[in-house]
Amino acid sequence: xxxxxxxxxxxxxxxxxxxxxxxxxxxxxxxxxxxxxxxxxxxxxxxxxxxxxxxxxxxxxxxxxxxxxxxxxxxxxxxxxx
Length: 82
Known about the structure:
Elements: E1 2-5, H1 9-12, E2 15-16, E3 24-26, E4 31-33, H2 34-38, E5 47-48, E6 50-53, E7 58-61, E8 65-69, E9 72-73, H3 74-78
């Protein structure tokens, strides 16, 4: 399990969508990328299951990622899983 602090810009920006963008957001049980959604590239998928850490070049599935805001888990703030 890996933790990403959504309020910490430097922590969040080391994570990228499969196309390499930093404009991802968590959704129900996957991730969504704004740049991929706006792209004219038909191969760009705005919804995806995996984030890539550019520092370590590791990828993590959505269920392996714990999202937090400061000291609170994202799940507890939203009343469920993001």
